[in-house]
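Reply to dn_fold:

You asked what the input looked like. This is it:
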Amino acid sequence: MASKAKVGVLGASGYTGSELVRMLLRHPKVEITLLTAERSAGKKMRDVFPQFSPFDLPTLVALDGLDWVGAGLDVAFCALPHATTQKVIKGLLAAAPSTKVIDLSADFRLADTAAYAKWYGHEHHAPELQTQAVYGLVEIHRRQLRHAKLIANPGCYTTCAELPLIPLIKAKAIELDDIVVDAKSGMTGAGRAATWWLHPRCTSAARRIRARIRPNWPKGRAHGPSRRSCATR
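and this is what came back:
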């Protein structure tokens, strides 16, 4: 790898993608050479997020028809919506297998394809990659991550639960039947798009949920299976 890694961010116009761009700009060993966005294709990052005005960043491009070989990426961060990621990463690695991929969606967090289908409501579109992905909790899987080609970045709720629980479980310091995780996240965890708990006519998410706590899919999210997947990898 050259002195600076050529890095691409897929889905750079979302909350996760833009925050990732902000952090990468501060990394001395990174050169951002590719930024993608579907609805904002053709625009500059400064047009979507004014805070990037001082930086000379690539113009946002659409994923459709992208030449992965020509892109010459060392690392691709994927910040696309769940389920979209699978086909994109499958095509990327088929065309440019030397590229390391770090996926920030939930698409490769569950090693069990049957569990994925149960919790996400559809079959996985890249099952052969799903079983190869390394769960990106560095404190637990540091050695495997050094040589991984596809990294499944863990989610916020699972990370805050796994980091304190795994050492306690390994030490047999707690009973497995008595574990309760009470976690809260900020509204940006929902992404830029409106979600079920935001009123469709409300233009400001902040006005809708200020000083309130709302349950985040208490019966239908895959946080539990994701934690179990981490523990058994």
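The first strand starts at residue 5 and ends at 10.
Hope that clears it up.
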